[in-house]
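User: We ran a pulldown and think these components assemble together. Before we commit to crystallization trials, I'd like a predicted model of the whole complex to look at. Sequences follow.
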Amino acid sequence: MQHWLMKTEPSTFGIDDLERAPRHRTSWDGVRNYTARNFLRDSMKRGDQAFLYHSSCETPGVAGIMEIVKEGYPEEEVPWFKVDVKLVRRFDRIVTLATLREHESKELRGMLLLQRGNRLSITPVETAHWKFILSLA
DNA sequence: GCCAACGTTGGC
DNA sequence: GCCAACGTTGGC
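Assistant: Here's a predicted model for the assembly, 137 residues in total across the polymer chains.
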């Protein structure tokens, strides 16, 4: 199983919205970047888990865990792709970006989210990083 | 609101 | 293929 991190702006769609969605499920669409699209289309597999990350908000950070329940399929707008996800677990508290940064040079060294200038909305997460962030949650 | 980083566009 | 201009992201 692979792990991922998927960004969303909570003012548009956040963990509250996912929790309220029918069966805690939603289509993860609107991704408009080719690298991220390729992850959606080619690499994400059913059963993979992903951190739901809140960006562009008061407290950026990881809000919970989702599972991929439907692999990549086309959006109506060519050439973009989406997957379906469901909420697995909502963290009691957000694991904030500030907290992640505290471990940037040790446990989370090399994490793509923390790399300078990274704007990619979907990134793979190394298993060691995944486990460590879970331990913070 | 600012601005660094970086992706995309389009003329050549 | 180059690269300047422009648009977007996202933390602060």
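Residues 34-43 of chain A form the longest helix (10 residues). That may be worth checking against your pulldown data before setting up trials.

User: Thanks, that helps.
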